[in-house]
Amino acid sequence: MSLKVKLQEDLKSSMKNKDTVKKSVVTLIRASVKQFEVDNRVELDDEAIIDIIAKQMKQRKDALVEFEKAGREDLVNETEAEIEVLKEYLPQQLSEEELNEIVKSTISEVGATSMKDMGKIMSVIRPLTKGRADGKLINELIKKNLQ
User: What InterPro entries is this protein classified in (predicted)?
Assistant: First the structure.
């Protein structure tokens, strides 16, 4: 089943079950996908939809930090619930250990020796971890392994 079909089915079921959080998150995902398709006159495949969902996940995580700083517990709880719904549509996330192994092997593969090689490393790691790891974490692991 394609991701578009799954989103459509989940929207229907969340409406039937009166699950407002899931309904709003799925509606936002579908709207973002539709907007991208209309703007670029393309039909998105599952991989491109996963990219959109990953961007929304990053936005929610960034907002979560700000809500916690502001002491807005109501928004923190709502955003955490939205993050859980978004996780359902992303591939299984890599653990920090798995990610560290990928970073180490990529550094040796590229022959990186300093932070100047960050671009080379990231260009190799991005396709391997697309939608399965946070860019900030990858960045931190690269810095740690290059020291």
Answer: Asn/Gln_tRNA_amidoTrase-B-like, GatB_Yqey_C_2, YqeY/Aim41, YqeY/Aim41_N
CA distances from 35 to 25, 52, 124 (A): 15, 11, 29
Residue 23: name the closest of 70, 74, 68, 82 by CA.
82
Single pTM value for the model:
0.79
Q: Which H/E stretch holds residue 132?
A: none
Q: Which long-range contacts (CB under 8 A, 24 or more apart) does 31-36 make?
A: 32/56, 33/4, 33/7
Give the closest residue to 76 by CA, choosing from 87, 62, 88, 89: 62
Residue pLDDT, tens place only, 38-84: 999 999 999 899 989 989 999 999 999 999 999 999 999 999 999 99
Q: Domain of 119: which CATH number?
A: 1.10.10.410
Q: Are residues 101 and 83 in the same domain?
A: no
- Shared domain check, 112 and 74: no
Side chain identity at residue 31, one-letter code: A
Question: ∠ at Cα 82 (22, 46), nearest 5°?
Answer: 75
Report whether 86 contacts 54 (CB < 8 A). no
